Structure prediction request, 252 residues.
Amino acid sequence: MTTGDIVRLEHVWVNYGHTVALEDINLSVKEHDFLGIIGPNGGGKSTLLKVILGLVQPDRGTVAVLGNSPEKSRNKIGYVPQYSNFDHNFPVSVLEVVMMGRYGRAGVLRPYGKSDRQAAARALERVSMLAHSGSQIGQLSSGQQQRVFIARALVSEPELLLLDEPTASVDTAMQTDFYELLEQLKKEMTIVMVSHDIGAVSIFVDKIACMNVQLFYHGSKEITPEILEATYKCPVQLIAHGEIPHRVLREH
Prediction:
C-alpha cells in the first residue's frame, strides 16, 4: 500500500452463486478520510463493508486494511452494522453492551478488568451516554441505542470505523447531532459510512462514492448527474454546494 492508505481494494469481485455482488472494485481510502457510500438497495454496499472486515472473502482481487489482511487488522476496526437485533427485554446494561466491544482486544474468555470498564466509560462519554451506563439498553430510544452501539465500536480504540446505515433508526431531530459526532470522530480515525440519505451524505462527508455492484469513485465529494444515473438507473436530483446549497434537476 502507498503511504496513508487505510483501505485498498484492487479488482475485487464477489459472487453469491450466479449473482454478482461486487464487480471489479478498486478503492483507496486515505487516513482520516470520511467517505460516504451511496447507492440503491442490493447494490453491494453492505457486502463491501464485510469484505473490508474480512467477513466475506472475494472470489477475485486483493484487499488490504491498515497494511495487513482484514483478518489481522480486525481488532483495529470498529463496525456498526445496519441492524442490531436484540431482545429489548433482556436485562443487559448499556455499560455491559459497550464492554462487549473489548472482545477483540481482550479475548472472549478473559474476564473484564478495570481497564475495560474505564475504556467503556470513555467511549460512552464520547457519545454523550455515560449518564445512561446503568440503564437497560432496551429502555432507550432508538437514537440513544445507536449512540451506544457506536460506543461499542469505539471502545476498542479503532483506527477505522465502518458504519452501515447508521441513521436508519435515528429520528430526524437526532440525525444532525449524530453527524456532528462523526465530525469529531473523523479527527481521530478514518470513517467509511454507507447511507441512503444522499442529502445528508452530501453535506457532512468529505468524499462520496456511488455504488451499484460497480463502484464510481474519484476521491472527491463531487458527483456528476451521469454517475448518479448510472448508479440508480434513473434521473436523480443533485445537491449543489456553494454559498447557497440548492438542488439541480435534470429534464426527464
